[in-house]
């Protein structure tokens, strides 16, 4: 699974970013507009929803469960300082996707009894798209966290995030991670659509090997 997270860029608008990754086959977009006001976010979200719905793409919004409900998006991703998961689930109901951020195994353990659909675990390495960055995890950190997660019988899907590029994917997926979330490595690619296709092709081959092992 490849998740794309939007980020403001001098090269293109956020909607152009979404169009590019969708053209490359990406089926999951997280609309992230940290420094924008709510009306601007809603205006972009409405247009993003049109693009995603037409292409059968999941669209979740970062932070704003109320916008997800108002605009009938697919769900919300909640950071550690955002609305509590239980409160978001009460607001949204069972039909919406809720993802949550974790930076450690202890964070995952704290989330295990909440009603979430996936966890974004990071950062893998330093990334300029995230302010107030938590300590980087790296390959060894992911391997250790996934080992402890298996030992604890925690079954929540885990998506790696934070400065990930194509050459990292094999090593990260080898730790048992369920998917990859990317932003800068696609936005800054020479051809965003082609790089999306390349990443998805690699991820699909890795998942196929897992299923046929």
UniProtKB/TrEMBL annotation:
An example Gene Ontology biological process: thiamine diphosphate biosynthetic process
Reported cofactor(s): Mg(2+)
Keywords: Magnesium, Metal-binding, Thiamine biosynthesis, Transferase
Function: Condenses 4-methyl-5-(beta-hydroxyethyl)thiazole monophosphate (THZ-P) and 2-methyl-4-amino-5-hydroxymethyl pyrimidine pyrophosphate (HMP-PP) to form thiamine monophosphate (TMP).
Residue sites binding Mg(2+) per the record: 63, 82
Catalytic activity, as annotated: 2-(2-carboxy-4-methylthiazol-5-yl)ethyl phosphate + 4-amino-2-methyl-5-(diphosphooxymethyl)pyrimidine + 2 H(+) = thiamine phosphate + CO2 + diphosphate; 2-[(2R,5Z)-2-carboxy-4-methylthiazol-5(2H)-ylidene]ethyl phosphate + 4-amino-2-methyl-5-(diphosphooxymethyl)pyrimidine + 2 H(+) = thiamine phosphate + CO2 + diphosphate; 4-methyl-5-(2-phosphooxyethyl)-thiazole + 4-amino-2-methyl-5-(diphosphooxymethyl)pyrimidine + H(+) = thiamine phosphate + diphosphate
Family annotation (Gene3D superfamilies): Aldolase class I
Naturally occurring in which organism (per UniProt): Candidatus Limisoma faecipullorum
Organism lineage string: Bacteria, Pseudomonadati, Bacteroidota, Bacteroidia, Bacteroidales
Gene assigned in the entry: thiE
Cofactor: record remark: Binds 1 Mg(2+) ion per subunit.
Domain of life: Bacteria
Positions annotated to bind 2-[(2R,5Z)-2-carboxy-4-methylthiazol-5(2H)-ylidene]ethyl phosphate: 127-129, 163
Family per similarity comment: Belongs to the thiamine-phosphate synthase family.
Descriptive protein name: Thiamine-phosphate synthase
């Amino acid at each position: 699974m490849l998740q794309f997270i939007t980020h403001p860029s001098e090269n293109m608008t956020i909607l152009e970013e979404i169009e590019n990754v969708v053209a490359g086959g990406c089926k999951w977009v997280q609309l992230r507009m940290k420094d924008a006001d709510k009306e601007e976010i809603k205006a972009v979200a409405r247009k993003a929803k049109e693009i995603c719905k037409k292409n059968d793409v999941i669209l979740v919004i970062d932070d704003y469960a109320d916008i997800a409900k108002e605009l009938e998006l697919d769900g919300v991703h909640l950071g550690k300082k955002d609305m509590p998961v239980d409160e978001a689930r009460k607001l949204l109901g069972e039909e919406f996707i809720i993802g949550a951020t974790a930076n450690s195994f202890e964070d995952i353990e704290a989330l295990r009894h909440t009603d979430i659909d996936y966890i974004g675990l990071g950062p893998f390495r330093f990334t300029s798209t995230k302010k107030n960055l938590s300590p980087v995890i790296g390959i060894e950190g992911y391997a250790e966290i996934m080992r402890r997660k298996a030992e604890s019988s925690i079954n929540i899907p885990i998506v790696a995030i934070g400065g990930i590029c194509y050459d990292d994917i094999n090593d990260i997926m080898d730790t048992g991670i369920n998917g990859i979330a990317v932003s800068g490595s696609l936005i800054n690619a020479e051809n965003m659509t082609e790089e999306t296709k390349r990443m998805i092709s690699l991820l699909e081959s890795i998942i196929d090997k897992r299923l046929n092992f």
